[in-house]
Amino acid sequence: MTTAEVHRPLSPMERWYWIADQISPLNVIARVRVSGAVTTAALEAAAADLTAEHPLLRVSIAADSDGKNPEFVPVYSAEIPVRTVTPAAADTEAWEHEVDITELGTSLDWRTRPLARIVDVVHRAGEPGEYHDLILTVSHVVADGTTALALLRDLVDYAAAHTAGSMTPDTEPAAYGVVRRLPLPAPEDMLPSRFRGMRGLLRAVGTAIVDQVVAAAARPHRLLPEVAVDPHDRRTRLWHRELSGEQLEALVQRCRAEGVTVHGALTAAMALALGNIVAPGDSGRIGIGSPVDFRTELRPVVGPDDAGAYVCTVPSFPRFGAVDLWEVARDLNRELLRRKNFRQHLALVTLLRLATPDSVANSARTVALLDQRGPGNVCISNIGRYDFPERSGDWALSGAQFIAGISISGHFVATVNTSHGVLHWNFTYIEGTVSDARARQLADDSLEILSRELVRPEPAVRKG
């Protein structure tokens, strides 16, 4: 079968992510721990299989000399680089350091290479108990959290098959020229008809006006920068947290009893923690964005395994102060459901036709507007339960999770997924804009507030 390549202009949403990445790195990262022996050769072969399967992993980006009119073009060499790291024996969490220092802070080479790279953090190589933390970093131009985890899952499966020597013409696309996925149109070109063309644009503008009225009425607080950091100097950092299997089970049961979603509970805990920072001793509302996955609303429907970025962040304004966490969560769930029912997320995607600048050189006004009003100022991206396999070949797998870079879209972001029986809650922040101490406090306080509620007895009678 001949390969099918992507050669088209970037859509407004893709162009915005590309511009943001040039100002400050905008990467999506997935990580999993593999117990067993993994060779670089197996990873390189698996990476070749991955690029053969996914058209968006065989592109680079070309633009005019003034940085305008970017387009996807077939990459000259579709080799995803594999970097090996061997940390000190006692450094069991070295993967966090690699993500924090290198992967979040370094853009991918979008001009000449595929928009992905791999890091293999090797522990106890050649010894009993050998394990590897595999890190896949993908540009947000072609991936979101769901995409990154799906690509990492496929990478591990391909590498396991190479290790076992079980690749066949049906399973090894790189060796036999088999491409299992055809290029998809740009996300905006797959929107329902009512969100395309002039009609869709007018609807998007109307939605934006209504949203501004709602925001004005809510008078939400925002997480203000501790230090003004120039957009081009912004750097994403990481604090990793998680809920154990026992804590997760308690959370799920309590959410079920309270009639709220896990996302509602996590966001409410973050709202209460943020309130203690932005207005200590006071009460009010805080703006927190929630990315909405719109794959199933596109035509054709996009599968969770297809490469691409298919999320849009909608705002919410949960309460903080002397309020009950579960009441805050219920209010938040109702607000997000209303926004989804009105399909506000699709209207916002449409609005990018007007909002996205044409180049980095002309982006300053948009960046300033995001700092003042953008829904990603504080954000929690929760993809829920992601069923990453527990085994692949002879390997045991654990700790699958994703982390998001922020670039210029906000100050403080949480990413959440539940895999391998653990809820992974990663907090990223813009260094300086949010100090290391404040970011750590927000992460710890969010976890503490939620954990405290899980051991508190349920009320005999609930409101609402």
The portion of residues forming beta strands comes to 15-25%
State the CATH architecture of the largest domain.
2-Layer Sandwich
Q: Count of DSSP helices?
A: 12
Number of domains: 2
Q: What Rg, in angstroms, do the CA atoms define?
A: 22 Å
Strand segment tally: 17
Which class of secondary structure composition applies to the elements?
alpha+beta
Helix coverage percent of residues? 25-40%
User: End-to-end span in angstroms?
Assistant: 59 Å
Question: What letter string, H or E per element, gives the SSE order?
Answer: EHEHEEEHEEHHHEHHEEEEHHHEEEEEH
> What is CATH's topology name of the largest domain?
Chloramphenicol Acetyltransferase
Biggest pleated-sheet summary: 6 strands, mixed
The average pLDDT value, as a whole number, equals 92
Low-confidence stretches: 174-178
- What's the CATH H-level superfamily name of the largest domain? Nonribosomal peptide synthetase, condensation domain
CATH C-level label of the largest domain: Alpha Beta
Overall geometry comes to globular
Sequence of strands across the biggest β-sheet: 5-6-7-2-15-14
Keywords: Acyltransferase, Lipid biosynthesis, Lipid metabolism, Transferase
Organism: Nocardia acididurans
Pfam family, one: PapA_C
EC number: 2.3.1.282
